[in-house]
């Protein structure tokens, strides 16, 4: 039985050893494997080595402090979805975790793996035979992006569900590297390129994500649209963190997934502070979303539908969180 | 590369030399001879290979056998004791939760994981627990009724 490509599995005992192993160009980080192994089965990569991060001590913790929580990269999505304190204090994160794939995936899938999820496209997530018959594509082995054949870039969509929530909550990513480590705003983990959407260098991998404690009064939610109610990736996923009083916005952060090559924090929501929460505000918010998302024909659903649904979800979540009917 | 892995399958300790790139579904079906765990898709989309890994429903088609050192695996073959069907198997039989039968092992193992954690699940909890399992005969209502019957909560 040979469905995978004959890689060597390495199980490092320390972060430094893992970083050294991952410095090899043929090495890939393996956590839960629910994204990577499915992609390897489709021949989307042929790594010489898989570096298993799930044995690393200390990366499986939720460390709570007054200032916030540090979530280890190999905490499973199932645990995040069920953790009583996550549900109580960061409900949008629990909602997003619970919406990922199916229960059989969530028991293995990890926070770090979901943050680093490969981008997806209807021309990419296909079997070797399918892609070969179509001349492959720009993201893998081919020269043409079938979504935008005139262009020179890959439009595969980032489809992780945790990243938009963590962006809306202003989280930071802690990254290990052969040179030591660094910590940066989560948004800097990504770049606007479907073929190379992570900014991680050789040997680098995410070891934790730090979520600051939300300011008092902040309410949050995550919701996604998808063809069926489980397993499917988001056509559009929207996270909202809102503080409001007396019917006016105090602070609003919105982030999106599934609509661009990277998870996107909506710009311009700062200017909505102080605005009355009414139909004029929803129209402004809807326009901001429609202008900043750039869904392409990477799913079987039309791009314009995803643009509309992203806008509608953002408006609906703000309405619900503000208690406006 | 191959390595020796010792693990527990359906209550029995096993030790096997497995290749690093061997998937657990192939280990179970080809090496252990347990063909109850079904292969239904290209990887992670259908739930037919759902089994319990340390008591939690997981997908054998997205699990590397080499990473199962010291772990407990339970497949559909472990449920019947002394030739008697377990409560879920009996309920799927009586309530017609099985049509062609291909998704049934995965459905039952996903439901088994649920009932161990939550002996009296609501319909919504049953639907969520089975949300990763596809039935192409589309007999979902009978499947949910079967799980309800197994939990003693059938109407």
Describe the structure.
The complex is a heterodimer of chains A (325) and B (155). With 325 residues, chain A is an alpha+beta fold. Chain A is built from eleven helices and twelve strands. A five-stranded antiparallel beta sheet of chain A has the order 4-5-8-6-7. In chain A, a hairpin with a 2-residue loop joins strand 4 (62-65) and strand 5 (68-72). In chain A, helix 10 runs antiparallel to helix 11 (303-322). Chain A is globular and about 60 Å long. Chain B is an alpha+beta fold and 155 residues long. Chain B has two domains: 2-76, Beta-grasp domain (Ubiquitin-like (UB roll), Roll); 87-150, [2Fe-2S]-binding domain (DNA polymerase, domain 1), CATH 1.10.150. In chain B, strands 2-1-5-3-4 form a five-stranded mixed beta sheet, with helices on both faces. In chain B, a hairpin with a 2-residue loop joins strand 1 and strand 2. The radius of gyration of chain B is 15 Å and the shape is globular. The interface between A and B is medium-sized, with 30 and 32 residues.
What CATH calls the topology of one domain in chain A is Enolase-like, domain 1
Full CATH superfamily name of the largest domain in chain B: Beta-grasp domain
Strand content of chain B: 15-25%
Distance between the termini of chain A: 57 Å
Q: How many E strands of chain A?
A: 12
Helical run tally of chain A:
11
CATH fold category name of the largest domain in chain B: Ubiquitin-like (UB roll)
Rg of chain B is: 15 Å
Tally of alpha and pi helices of chain B: 5
pLDDT < 50 stretches of chain A: none
Determine the oligomeric state from the structure: heterodimer
- Rg from alpha-carbon coordinates of chain A: 20 Å
Rounded mean pLDDT score of chain A: 96
Order of helices and strands of chain B: EEHEEEHHHH
- Which two chains form the greatest contact, residue counts included? A-B, 30 and 32 residues
- Morphology of chain B: globular
Mean pLDDT of chain B: 96
- What is the CATH first-level class name of the largest domain in chain B? Alpha Beta
The helix-and-strand class of chain B reads alpha+beta
Structural class of chain A: alpha+beta
């Amino acid at each position: 039985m040979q469905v995978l490509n004959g890689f060597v599995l390495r199980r490092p005992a320390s972060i430094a050893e893992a970083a050294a192993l991952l410095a090899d160009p043929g090495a890939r980080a393996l956590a839960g494997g629910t994204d990577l192994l499915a992609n390897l089965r489709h021949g989307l990569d042929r790594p010489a080595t898989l570096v298993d991060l799930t044995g690393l001590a200390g990366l499986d913790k939720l460390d709570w402090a007054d200032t916030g929580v540090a979530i280890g990269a190999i905490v499973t999505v199932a645990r995040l979805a069920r953790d009583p304190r996550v549900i109580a204090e960061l409900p949008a994160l629990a909602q997003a975790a619970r919406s990922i794939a199916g229960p059989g995936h969530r028991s293995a899938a990890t926070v770090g793996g979901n943050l680093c999820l490969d981008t997806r496209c209807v021309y990419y997530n296909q079997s070797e035979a399918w892609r070969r018959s179509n001349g492959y594509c720009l993201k893998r082995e081919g020269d043409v992006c079938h979504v935008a054949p005139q262009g020179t870039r890959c439009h595969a969509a980032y489809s992780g569900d945790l990243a938009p929530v963590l962006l809306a909550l202003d989280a930071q990513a802690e990254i290990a590297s052969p040179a030591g480590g660094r910590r940066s705003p989560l948004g800097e983990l990504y770049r606007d390129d479907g073929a190379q959407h992570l900014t991680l260098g050789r040997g680098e991998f995410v070891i934790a994500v730090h979520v600051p404690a939300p300011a008092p009064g902040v309410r949050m939610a995550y919701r996604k649209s998808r063809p069926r109610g489980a397993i499917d990736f988001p056509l559009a996923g929207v996270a909202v963190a809102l503080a409001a009083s007396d019917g006016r916005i105090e602070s609003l952060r919105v982030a999106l997934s599934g609509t661009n090559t990277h998870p996107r924090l909506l710009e311009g929501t700062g200017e909505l502070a102080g605005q009355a929460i009414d139909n004029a505000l929803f129209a402004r918010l809807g326009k901001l979303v429609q202008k900043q998302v750039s869904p392409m024909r990477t799913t079987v659903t039309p791009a314009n539908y995803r643009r509309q649904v992203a806008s509608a979800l953002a408006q609906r979540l703000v309405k619900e969180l503000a208690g406006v009917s | 590369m191959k390595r020796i892995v010792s693990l527990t399958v359906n209550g029995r300790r096993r030790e096997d030399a497995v290749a690093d790139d061997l998937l657990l579904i192939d280990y179970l079906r080809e090496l252990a001879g347990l063909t109850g765990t079904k292969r239904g898709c290209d990887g992670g989309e259908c739930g037919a290979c759902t089994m319990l890994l340390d008591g939690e429903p997981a997908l054998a088609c997205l699990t590397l056998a080499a990473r199962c050192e010291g772990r407990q695996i339970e497949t559909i073959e472990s449920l019947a004791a002394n030739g008697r069907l377990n409560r879920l198997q009996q309920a799927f039989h009586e309530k017609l939760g099985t049509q062609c039968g291909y998704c049934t092992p995965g459905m039952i193992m996903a439901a088994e994981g649920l009932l161990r954690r939550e002996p009296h699940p609501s319909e919504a909890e049953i639907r969520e627990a089975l949300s990763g399992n596809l039935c192409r005969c589309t007999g979902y209502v009978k499947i949910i009724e079967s799980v309800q019957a197994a939990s003693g909560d059938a109407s």
